[in-house]
Amino acid sequence: MNTPWRAFFLTGALIVTLLFTRNLYLTNHSVGSSQSFLSKTLPQTQESLYAASLTDVAHERVSVLPIRKWDVLDPALSSEAVLLQSLDDSFPFYHQETYKSWPTASLAKLMTAVVVFEQIGFSKNIPITERAVATEGVAGGLQIGEIYSSEDLLKIMLLSSSNDAAVAFEDFLGGTEMFVSFMNKKAMELGMTRTMFQGASGLSNLSFSTASDMLRLAKYILQEHPDIFNWTRLHNFLVQPTNGTESKTIYNINPFVSDEGFLGGKTGTSPGARENLLAFFTFQDTRVVMILLGSRNRVLDAKRLMEWTENAYIF
């Protein structure tokens, strides 16, 4: 082969080699960046209810969605609004009036817990005020002058649904008006456009939300403050005021706490709201979120909804 042709082929081979090396570098660099970003999104605690779903994304697992059997009629429920869907892929098993406004009752305490996490923190000592003890209800057995860590008082509020504990947080943060402003500001940040809070306890019927909005709040808590739901799985816990020597046991009043598939949640009850529920369960090897508003019997409605879902879908 003469010299010009040899030079031509050598130049071509050099160009091909350079292009291959460049593409290999870019591919490796891109994969490395993707893995680094994904590792940052994984939760730092194994207790997070989001841990499994984020890990599944990392392995690019493809899930098979259930198939609806349309010959199965809708369930007969007493709730005004119903939402049941998969937590990981948001598959809607059943939605009914999910944008209907309804009094929150003690479901408002979930937003109260978020405000405490973000505006007060764990390490503060919260005094039990006279106004707090005078609030409707005696759940938690709090006494005027007692002082609790904010973490312990949160557990008291969530497990026993103590209105006194909720009002004590209000007083610590500057009163009802100040506390409520933080609640409603966070609601707007989360896109809860059909929600309005009037107090930390949820006693007022003027505190209202929707199943759709409460789902937004639930997902935010799972992502940012999973301890809130982790604590609600406790059957009971022993607590002692920081300025006292006597301890007491606080029991979880949630009727689902003994269910094997219960992953955490909150109930709310009032004459105006009837019975509300926001809870997470394991079901058919997946995790589901259930929201019931205005139920006349949330335990029965929850059971019927799960049974209906099992019969109405092919998994």
UniProtKB/TrEMBL annotation:
InterPro entries given in the database record: Beta-lactam/transpept-like, Peptidase_S11, Peptidase_S11_N
Annotated catalytic residues: S106 (acyl-ester intermediate), K109 (proton acceptor), S161
Binding site residues for substrate: K266
Pfam families recorded: Peptidase_S11
Gene3D superfamilies tied to this protein: DD-peptidase/beta-lactamase superfamily (3.40.710.10)
Domain named Peptidase S11 D-alanyl-D-alanine carboxypeptidase A N-terminal: residues: 93-296
Protein origin, superkingdom: Bacteria
This protein's UniProt keywords: Cell shape, Cell wall biogenesis/degradation, Hydrolase, Peptidoglycan synthesis, Signal
GO biological process: cell wall organization; peptidoglycan biosynthetic process; proteolysis; regulation of cell shape
Family assignment from sequence similarity: Belongs to the peptidase S11 family.
UniProt-recorded name of the protein: Peptidase S11 D-alanyl-D-alanine carboxypeptidase A N-terminal domain-containing protein
